[in-house]
Amino acid sequence: MQSHVHGEQKRRMKFMRVCAALLTVGSILMSGCATLYNPATEKQELIFITTPIEVALGKNAAMQAAEQYSFIKDPKQADKVTEIGEKLAKVSDRTDLKYHFAVVEDKEINAFTMPGGYVYINSGLLAITNNDDELACVIGHEIGHVAARHIAKKLQAQLGYDILMNIALRNASVRQMQQAVDVTFNLVELGYSREDELLADRLGAKYAYKAGYDPMAMITFLKKLKEKDRAGMGPIFLRSHPYTSKRIEMMERQIPFIIAKVDAKSTPTVSKPAEGGEAQKRPLKVMCPKCRRIFPGTENYCPYDGTKLE
Hints:
Elements: H1 2-33, E1 35-38, E2 43-46, H2 51-68, H3 75-90, E3 100-104, E4 111-114, E5 118-122, H4 123-128, H5 132-147, H6 150-158, H7 161-168, H8 174-190, H9 194-210, H10 217-230, H11 236-239, H12 244-265, E6 269-273, E7 279-283, E8 285-287, E9 294-296
Parallel strand pairs: 3-5
Antiparallel strand pairs: 1-2, 4-5, 6-7, 8-9
């Protein structure tokens, strides 16, 4: 009799554990199945992979990356990338995860992103950035992919329900997790769509400007890539990206609108005495309409060409 009761209790406990697991999976996956507004894309999107799942995938992919790649040993260079990256991450459209930044020892001009906020910059790309503004735009571009959930949306189309469920429950087998990591690396290697890359350019310029860097540096960097491509060097960074001339043309049109939109949403302003003696409200930063450089809002005239700054 006691053994029968004990067996019945075990069955009930097993049933309750199964129910709890199903409820957990349901809450994790169904919360991601809702159509939510993505501020990076400014669209309502169906996101199936939740942040915890994406971070788990990214962490495992990063572990494999650590075995596959060599990283620079210069702490100053690595710290600079991390410092700039963290500034950009704070003003990005996605702050629900912790970003990680690393510099890969590779002469190829390239940068890439793993799920969950893992951003990698090749030393070859770092070498051709003339200043922090250009580097900020490049890192901002990669953060833009994370904020727009480009890799997450590609993964949810490739990975099966069983794998996602097990990752959500931290119950994925070694084989399943390796499969997910392999898919991740393949998708990163394939690159993004033309639309995704153009959006990442715009987001990179926006985050750079919000973090205090010059968004026009995105254009100077792209022109640099165009010259190298013309010289036959063929940077990897261009192989999965749209034609550089198209990206330059788009950014030349878009950056003034990006700046205006950010300034319109920014509440902080500086007060400057007007000619009549009354205080005049101006944004913290202004752009010269002629040379398109960015200056503090306290400046009245462009120090390079004398143009009046409105």
